[in-house]
Amino acid sequence: MKLPALPIAICLAAGILAAAPITAHLPHGLLLSLLITLCAVLVGCALLKLRRVDLAWTASLLVWFFLGATAAQVERLAVPPNQASILASSGRLDLGEPLRWRGILRADPLRLPWGVRYDVDLEQVQAAGQWTAVRGGLRVSYFFDQRASGDPSPVRAGELVEVLARARTIRNFGDPGAFDYRGALQQQGIDLTATLRNPALMQVLPGPAPRLSHFMARLRGRLLNELDAMLSPAEDRAAIARAMLLGDRSFLDSQQVEPFRETGAFHVLVLAGLHVGVLAALFFWAGKKLHLPVAARALLTIAALCFYIAIIEDRPPIVRAALMAAVYLLARVLYRRVALLNAVSLAAIAILLFRPSEIAQVSFQLSFLAAAIIAAIAQPLLERTAEGYHRALEHLGDVTRDASHAPKVAEFRLDLRALSAWLRSLLPARLAGHSDQFVVFPCRVALRLCELAVLSVALQVGMLPLMAQDFHRVSFIAPLANIPAVLLTALIIPFGFASLAVSTVWKGFGIILGRILGFLIATLAASMHWFARLPSSSIRVPSPSAALLIGFLLAAAFLAAAILSNKRWASWTGFASLLVLGSLIVIYPFPAQFQRGRLEVTVLDVGQGDSIFVAFPDGRTMLVDAGGLPGSSYVRGMRPGIDIGEDVVSPFLWSRGLKRIDAVVLTHAHEDHLGGLPAVLRNFRVGELWVGRDVESAPYRNVLAEARARSVPVIHRVRGEHFEWAGVRMSILWPDTNDPARTASNDDSVVLRLQDAKESLLLTGDIERPVERSILADGDELTANFLKVPHHGGKTSSTPAFLDAVHPAVAAISVGDANPFGHPSADAVERILAEGTRLLRTDRDGAITITTDGQSLNFRSFFTCTAPCSELSSSAASPTAATEGEAPAF
Predict the structure, then answer these.
(1) Residues whose CB is less than 8 angstroms from the CB of residue 396 and which lie 6 or more positions away in sequence, other chains included
(2) How far is the C-alpha of 712 from the C-alpha of 664, rounded, in Å?
């Protein structure tokens, strides 16, 4: 068998995926997996002894399948019982109060524009006056605007520190499709987060001597500082250099990397196979120039890659690529020609055996899909086309070698020799002898560029389904944009490390080299900006269905098999199938996923902010606000925290199959309501933008500028407007004027009342007592079966008179977990419950969905909705237990 490792890797992966069902349905799944594995080994050995190789091979694949299932179950059991996240979730560790944490600093403190970040490997925690052993990672942030007495004392990786802080478990947003923030931090070994309120609350204690990993972390910190010094004051270029050379993406702002995403070149900012390939080629070439034997060259390259892994951050992608490179290099040492697909499969086997959970990581899937595309599709195609012409360029003047080439290639050599002879007749005597080189060199460059273009096209097409599934983006310009991106990266990486090495011993010359490095990085960034500005360079798409994804991957596998077996008709069939399925992913002709004929209102979990999705009976859609992190304004060109619009609101809308939103409503110009709107306006075709009062604030003006840039009409809404919209009666209850205001105010909020036959829903923004009284005084109809509680349940809203007029059966508070404002207030909650209202909160229940057919109202929530509840009466109010049910119409 030419590719023995491939079926083994497939069976191992299948076993890992089957581990969860095995564990769920069998009480002793691990023991059963071990038993079947052992039996299959014995059967395989017996079949080998009987010389039944085919059956023995089948038995061995069964061994690998159950070995994968066993490894996955063992990995789950291997989590220590005193893991910090487990202790907290089980209630054995009370995180309600500040605790003393002790641990070893994992890396040097990372200085960010808004503060300092510390990653601590925990060893002990003091709870109830007693020290308890604990494992896991704690990320501590110290913000400059909370400074009490200066910066914390300088500390280094490997030092034992004690921190007094209130830690929190990592919470994901409770919305379909939202960014897996918990998973992202767990990949980095972080289980808890905390904020350091005062520098004096961190102390350095006597501890053990630093380990080798800590010295490597200190070296990484020094190299990062050297990069900053070399590229200062060009902070944007330093941020890209930190990411490309050492894997630190902390300083990359979303606006800075967006052109790389739009052009499909974001991979150059993420340490992965491209970076390993460049370094491996560099060291292997250096060994050749030093006239080292093949074994020494391979060992030198592997040693360099190991050192690189030790000093960088975000190691898993590099480890995967380095394993593939190591397998290939070791095969060269043994004078064996290893198939690239075998090397990829062996690397996958090694990783999955030791860390089976990697299979669920997006980076793992992308890494091995890319490697498989290169090995199974691009490389065989190039070997049968460009490789022959590459060989034809060798010894061009030797006519005796023509017969060893294919007829077309031999004809190519004849044409080149004729061209060389013509050049020789034109060149001066001292250059005439180099005419062959003048002909061969541009041909080599052209062939390499063609190969790069083929690789780029194959990768972009083959990775289309995962890019659409995980990043909701299809880049049409990517095959072209990746050519300069890859070429410039191949220059930046070796030159960057050479500059770092020089700078550590000669600062002055290092700064000069830093200017050249900065120029290369600026050229890379400028080229990506240029490609991104081209019309329709990329589009955002909803998540493809599982059937479409599976169909595409099967078609790709069929195409790879056809190419490897050199069956032309099958290759064209596979290629046509890929085009059809890829077109379906790009066009996404499927209807959005909501019930026609029903009105739906979903209060999204966006933390401390507001975002509400509305689907109307006739199929039109509306988004009221798009969340945003309070205080997440730009600090020295960077915005701390994630982009709620990009990472929370947009994925929810894509999960519903939406590409267009008919109307977006901005209730008022506070960051926790408008922060995510620019991303929503970029990612979706928006019909109209509804606003209340204009305000003189930069974030609000940015939203209007984004709308104008995309030709979105801006409509001002004011009290007294009543109209039919998408089959629902809509009333604007506030604001009472659209006159511009100097600053944003909660009491400028747009208040909407939706009436669908007998059912009504009231969306109140952040109005407070004065507006509630004004609306009551105006005499508008306020009765509503559902209420979006004003101002996150703050004490300055939800007055008794207002609640009595609305008298909701169900109410939802959009509020952030453990927010610093104390929302919702106990008084507001008590007043709401006094109305006999069923109260839900996004911090506890996740996204809250209300649906109605105009006669009755149903509700459900993301976190706590596990089974349908019985019919709900208005007297069955409960502050937290609501999951799914029905509320009566008035």
Answers:
(1) 413, 416, 417, 420, 436, 439, 440
(2) 10
Determine contact, residues 781/804, Cβ cutoff 8 Å.
no
763-769-773 Cα angle (round to 5) = 85
Do residues 752 and 624 touch, judged by C-beta distance below 8 A?
Answer: yes
Q: Cα separation of 37 and 74, whole Å?
A: 14
pLDDT digit string, tens, across residues 525-540: 999 999 999 988 889 9
**What's the token pair of residue 200?**
């004096």
Tokens of residue 468, six digits: 């659409």
How do strand 685-691 and strand 660-666 relate by DSSP bridges? parallel
pLDDT of residue 583: 93
Q: Report the distance separating Cα 843 and Cα 603, nearest Å.
A: 11
Residues 358 and 352 sit within 8 Å (Cβ to Cβ): yes
DSSP 82: T
102: β partners: 124, 162
Coil, strand or helix at 710: coil
Asked if 145 and 139 count as a contact pair (C-beta separation under 8 A), the reply is no
Burial class, 362, CB count within 10 angstroms (exposed 0-12 / middle 13-18 / buried 19+):
middle
How far apart (Å, rounded) are the C-alpha atoms in residues 68 and 595?
41
471, burial (CB in 10 Å: exposed 0-12, middle 13-18, buried 19+) = middle
Name the strand (E) or helix (H) holding 454. Answer: helix 435-462
- The rounded distance, in Å, linking the Cα atoms of 536 and 532 is 9
Element (H, E) at 274: helix 273-289
**670 vs 639: which has the higher pLDDT:** 670
Residue given tokens 């969306």 in the structure block: 763
Yes or no: say if 377 and 566 are a contact pair by the CB < 8 Å rule: no
Mean pLDDT of 827-839: 92
* Structure confidence by residue, pLDDT tens digits, 303-350: 999 999 999 876 788 888 888 888 888 887 776 666 788 888 888 999
Cα–Cα dist 348/6, whole Å = 9
Buried b (16+ CB within 10 A) or exposed e, 83-118: bbbbbbeeeebebeeebebbbbbbbbbbbbbbbbbb
Distance between terminal CA atoms of the chain?
A: 73
Burial of 354 (0-12, 13-18, 19+ CB in 10 A): exposed
CB 290 within 8 A of CB 296: no
Confidence of residue 872 (pLDDT cuts 50, 70, 90): very low
pLDDT tens, 122-143?
999 998 788 999 999 999 998 8
Any residues with CB less than 8 A from the CB of 394 and at least 6 apart, and which?
none
Pick from 494, 499, 491: nearest CA to 524: 491
pTM, to two decimals: 0.87
The CA distances from residue 330 to 3, 4, 283, 525, 624, in Å, are 17, 17, 15, 37, 59
Mean pLDDT of the chain: 87
806 or 330: whose pLDDT is higher?
806
Q: Which residues contact 498 (CB under 8 A, 6 or more apart)?
A: 513
Instruction: Give the pLDDT mean for 90-102.
Output: 89
Per DSSP, the three-state class of 243 is helix
Q: Which long-range contacts (CB under 8 A, 24 or more apart) does 858-866 make?
A: 858/884, 858/885, 858/886, 858/887, 859/786, 859/810, 859/884, 859/885, 859/886, 859/887, 860/884, 861/174, 862/174, 862/175, 862/176, 862/605, 863/174
